[in-house]
Amino acid sequence: MPNERHNLSSLRRRCPMLLISDKTQNAYMRIKQALLRHETAPNTFINIRTVATRMRVSPTPVREALIRLADEDVIQFAAGRGYYSKPIKADEVKAEYEMAFMIAKYSIEKNKIEFDRIPPVLVPEIRGQSDLSDKENEADGVANYLETLYERLAMISGNPKLVKVTHQFGERTHHIRRFGLMVEPEFIEFYSHMSGLEKLLLEGDQASALKSLVQQHHAKSDILQHVLEKFEFRAETSKAVLEDLLG
User: Which parts of the chain register pLDDT below 70?
Assistant: First the structure.
């Protein structure tokens, strides 16, 4: 029996996904997406049984999903009390953007794989929609384009770990980026600059691409603070319930 437990523990360390049930994975994805929208007030208690009832599963997969989310720092855990939604921390978000910038800069400098060998993505058109649903869809499209472009930049480094970290950055900050595109006109300008940076790389003008990236990063840092203040205010004044956001 001791050897069996040791072998099982070793298997968990080497292949953790083998032990994650479909129900747990589904609960994890749905809860994570709902939380990253930051439409529930920060420090809101997450009731495992209530969430499980809404998702029509037992409490076990929900509990396992919350353990993963706490480990990823998406939510907070208080011993003896439970799990809580996490407030937005501007310094942490800015650090995420700084990290993504440093990876992109390093990747362009490294240039191990030529950019034109990385599969391209469709560049969305900005039409300035007035209808809310159309505006949201447009913001989603632009946010997805920017996140994919950051991943493509990481790919030219030839380092898959940097690509993974960049993907996680895009996932964690998607709703902030989407919100910024909807409420801060200057955020749209960064989109046009990034598509311009893409063209420079396709033309092989590495020096100009680096210069453009640095300029955008410094300009974005100032605007990001305003976006985060508005985003945080929306979260703090929200009356949305997590269970209603699970989809």
Answer: 1-20, 121-133, 247
